[in-house]
Amino acid sequence: MVHDPSDLAQSAARAVLIMADGSLPDFEAVFHPEAYNRECAAEPPACREPGPAGFYATALWLRTTYSDLRWEIHETVTSQDSAAVHTTMSGRQTGTFVVYDANGIPEQAFPATGGSFAVTQTHWFRIAEGAVIEHWANRDDLGLAQQLGWVPPTPVYLFRMWRATRAARRGPASASTTAE
């Protein structure tokens, strides 16, 4: 089925932009109840749920780490039931970024550096029944890590990462003590 390209482009752009400041009702209006995020493997378990709740959990996870989070949309390209959105994601790391393993256990934690970043990303969306049903992305994660000072890590930052990872594995209450 061929969809109206402007509808596809608007749905895809909205799906990106609400990550910065959208509420759960915004996500419910954009994401299909069975929507799947192919990028959720290293995210917290709540982000792995299908549908709007999982995507909203991803937004909250990102917002916990990055202040002033935003996406600038450069181009949107559509074809049949899909749209690709080329963006720049920017913000400032004010919280610990935690990466999770397949079992939902914190695998690595990157404590806040206070640094700002701007990295390009391309997000791909498949649209069904007027809503996003599938998402995947190409991101410049190395550029993000370099801009925030995660790599190459200094000995002091490696120690801070070790402490933050330990705290994340103990639970949310202890993770907040490693943000210094």
UniProtKB/TrEMBL annotation:
Q: Which Pfam families match?
A: SnoaL (PF07366)
Instruction: Tell me which Gene3D superfamilies the record gives.
Output: 3.10.450.50
Q: SUPFAM superfamilies, from UniProt?
A: NTF2-like
Against InterPro entries, the record matches this protein to: Cyclase_SnoaL-like, NTF2-like_dom_sf
GO BP annotations of the record are:
polyketide metabolic process
Please identify the protein, giving its name as recorded: Ester cyclase
Protein species of origin: Nocardia jinanensis
